[in-house]
Amino acid sequence: MNDREKRDFDAGLAEEVDAFLTGQPTRRSFITRFGQMVGMLPLSGALLSSVSTFALAQAELELADPSTPLGKAQALALEASTVGPKDGSAYRAVEAAKQFAGVNLNMTYEAGLQALDPRNFSGPMWQDMTGITSSVAELANPDMYSKAVAEHFAGSGAFDVLDISPAWTPSLADGGVIAPLDDYIAKYMNLADLEDYHPLYKALPTYKGKIWGFFDDGDMFALYYRKDIFEDPKMMEAYQAKFGKPLAVPTTWEDYAQTAQFITDQMAPEVYGAGHFRKAGSPGNHFDFMQQFRTNGGELFDENMQAGIAGPAGLKTLENMIAANTASIPGNNELDAVSLWAAFLTGKVAMIYSWPPTGRMTAGYSQTATAINFIPQSEVAGKIGYAVVPGNPEHATGFNKALAADSANPEAAYLFMQWITSPPVSLARVMLPYALRDPYRLSHFKSDLYAELWPDAKEYLVNLNNSANVGVLDLIMPGAQDYFLSLDRMATDVWAGADPQTALNTAAAEWNDTTDRLGVDSQKAFYEEFLKLPGSTADHTVEKLGMAVKLD
Amino acid sequence: MSETNVIRRLEAAGLPPQLSRFGEWADRHFKWVLVAPAVLLILALSIYPLVYSLVVSFINFDFQVPGHAFVGFKNFERVIADPVARWSLVLTAFLSFSSVAIEFILGFAVAMTMMRSFPGRGLIMSILIVPLFISPVIVGQTFTLLLQRPFGPTNYVLSALLGNEVTISWLTESPYIYFSLILADVWQWTPFMFVILLAGLTAIPPNLYEAAELDGVGPWQVFWSITVPHLGPMILLAITFRLLDAIRLFDTIFIMTGGGPGTSTYTASYYLYTIGFTQFHLSQATAGSWLFLIFTALVVVFLVRRLLKAETN
C-alpha cells in the first residue's frame, strides 16, 4: 500500500465513521439494527404476553364487611366451599379442582359491570381455594356469540368457560361449540342443587335431552312503580272520579296505558306516568313486543313456520305500546335502559318495567359500589312498589354458563362452573351491589340475607319469583337475533310515524325470509323444541303447568 | 455506499477481496431483501384477506347455517334484493355529499377569514382544529347528550330563544335526525377542510393579489379569477379526501341513532356491520362489502381523474 492508497483507505474509514457519527445509515448499521429489531420480537412477544395476562387477570379478592348481609353471604360461600357440607356442589367442586392447581381458565364475560364479579370476587376466591387462575375476556354482547364461534372454527381452544344467552344454546350445541355436561354432573354435582332452580330457569340449558350449561342470571322483567303516587289520596280520588274504579297497579296493558296517561295528565311536567327504553338498538322494543304479543294470545309462528306477528294480536300489541308511549315522559322513544333508570331514579317517572337491578338501584343499594356510580343516586328509595308486569313478563335474555367444547381443561372448567353457580356461591354473587346477575335460584328468592339488603328486599324477591311463575321466555332458536332485529326496526319505524299494520307486514316478511334462509324444516324442529319449555307461550307458563313456586 | 468505497479501496490496496460469492449475490439483491418484510406483511395482512373475502362471498359463511357450501352469486343477490341495502346506499350518498358540501363552504369561509391578520388569530385557529383530534364515537356521544330528549339541553335553549316550547325529537324524528347527523359530522370535519384550504390559500403568490389591486380589480373578481383557479387542485384534493372518509360513516350512526328509527339511518357501513356482526351473515356482509367497494371505486376513479386533470392543467 503506497502513501496515496493508505491516505485513501484512511479517508474511506473516516467516511464510514463520519456516517456513523452523523447517524446516516450504512448497510452494516441497517443490518445490525434490523438484527436487533428481530431479536426484540421474541422479547416483545413475551412482554406483551405478560402485559395481556396481567390485564386479563383478576384483582385481589374483594370481601364485604363481615357484619353486613353481603359479608355474611360471602363467608357462608367460603365455608360451604372449604368446610362443607361435604356433599354440597361447592365443596365437591373445590375438592376435585385442587388436582388442577396451576391451570388457567379463560372465560368470556359481558364487558363492564358483569366482569367485575369474576375479577374481584369469584375468580380470586376460586384461585385462593384451588390454585386455578382465571382470565376474563370482556366482550360486547354480540361478540360473546361470534367470538366463541370464530374461535371454535379456528380450533384455538381460546376459551374454557363461555357466558352465553340461552337463545344461543341450540346453535352452539348443534355447531359443536359447547359441550354437554351430563357426565360431569353425574360425577360431581349434588343433584339436589338442580332442583333449587326456579322451574322457569331449570330447563333453559336443556336441549335435545342434554344439559348444555348452568343457568346463571334471572333477567326477569318486573313492574316498578311509585307507591307514594298510587297511594296519594288526591290521585286516588281523581282516578275514581274519572274512571269509576280505584286507582291500582295495572294488571292489563290497556290499564297500564290508561293509568300512565292519567298520572301524566295530573302531574306532568314534574312526574310522567311511564317511561320505556325504546331507542333503536336498545333491546326494549323487542322484549316488550314479545311479552305483550304473547299476553295478547299471539303465536309467533303457525304450523307452516309462517310468521304470526302481523295478525290481530300483533296489531293490538303495537297499538297498546303506542298508547303507552303517548302517556310517557317526553323523549320516551329516545331512551335506552340506563337513561330510563336515570329518569326513574330522579323521580320523573311513576312506572317502569325493566330488569331486576332496577329494584336494587331504586333502593340505593347498587350505588354503594363505586363501580356503578354513573347511575344517579336514588331519590325514590322507600317509595317503590314491586309488581308483576301486566300479563306475562319477559325473561329478557339471561345468561347460561357453558363449557367450551375446545377447552384444553374441560374438567377444571366444568368444576368452576359448578362451583360458581352452586347455591351458596351464586347467592353471594347475586348480592354484589355492582353485579348485574340477578336472583334465579329458589334459595335466592328465600334468602334471609338477601332480604336484609334493604327494607323492601323481601317483597322484591317475592315479586321476582312470582314474575318467573308467569313469565315468558325469549325465543330460543337459531336466527333469534334476526327475528329480534326485525321487531326492533318495526317498532322504531312505528314510533317515527309508520303505519303499524304496514310495519308488522314488513317485519313478518323479514321473519319469513330469515326462516327460509335457515331452513323451514330445521327451524320448525327448533321451534317445536322451544315450545316444550315452560314459559314458551302465555298458555304454557310455569303457573299454567302447575309448577308455580309460592313464597310467603 | 461508503461500504462499497471501502471495498474498492481495499482491492486497490492489493488486499484480498472481502465479499464471498454469497456476499456478491446478497449485494446484488440487497434491495429485494429490504422490501421483502413490507411485501410479506402486505401479502399477509391485505392481499390474503382480500382474496379470502372474495372466496367467502361465494360460499356460505354464516354462523347460524352449518357448512361452507359454494352458493355462487346468491350472497350478492341477497344484498341487491334487500331494500335496506339499497336505501343505505342512497343515504350514504346523501349524507356524505351534504356533509362534505357544507364542510367545504364553511371551511373555505373560515380559511378566507383566517388569511387576514387579527388579534387572537393563533388561538382561534388552535381551537378550531380541536374537533379533528376527537374520536367520532365521542363526538356522537356528545351530540347525543346535547340532543337527546328529555335530558339534552338543545330544546330547552331553543325554547328560551324562540319563546315557544320546542319539542323536537332530534334523534328519532325525520327530517331532524338527518340534520343532527350532518351537524355532528360538519362540526367535526369542517376544520379538516379549513386546514387544507388555508394551506392552499397561503401558497397563492401574493404578487398576484398586489397586481390585481394595482389594476383596480374588485374583490369578487379577484376571488373568482385568482383565488378559485389557483386553489382548484387543493379544493379537489380536500373534497376527495373528505368524501372518501365520509362515505364510510359509521361511528356517529352507531352512537346517535343505532340505525333507527326503523332502518332510516342505515348507511352502507352500518348495514354491513349489522348483517355481519349483529346477524352473523358473514358471507352476505362480505358480498355487500365488495359491491360497496365497486361503488366507492367509481367515485374514487372519477375524483382522482379530476384531480390529476386539475394538476396537469
Automatic annotation (TrEMBL), chain A:
GO terms for cellular component: periplasmic space. Pfam families: SBP_bac_1. It comes from the Bacteria. This is Multiple sugar transport system substrate-binding protein. Belongs to the bacterial solute-binding protein 1 family. The keyword Repeat does not apply. It is found in: Periplasm. Keywords: Periplasm, Signal, Sugar transport, Transport. InterPro entries: Bact_solute-bd_prot1 (IPR050490), SBP (IPR006059).
From TrEMBL, chain B:
It is a multi-pass membrane protein. InterPro entries: MetI-like (IPR000515), MetI-like_sf (IPR035906). Its main location: membrane. The chain crosses the membrane at residues 30-51, 87-111, 123-147, 191-209, 221-241, 285-304. Pfam families: BPD_transp_1. One of its GO terms (cellular component) is plasma membrane. Coiled coil: none annotated. CDD domains: TM_PBP2. It is found in: Cell membrane. Residues 89-303 form the ABC transmembrane type-1 domain. GO terms for biological process: transmembrane transport. Keywords: Cell membrane, Membrane, Sugar transport, Transmembrane, Transmembrane helix, Transport. The keyword Iron does not apply. Belongs to the binding-protein-dependent transport system permease family. This is Multiple sugar transport system permease protein. It comes from Bauldia litoralis.
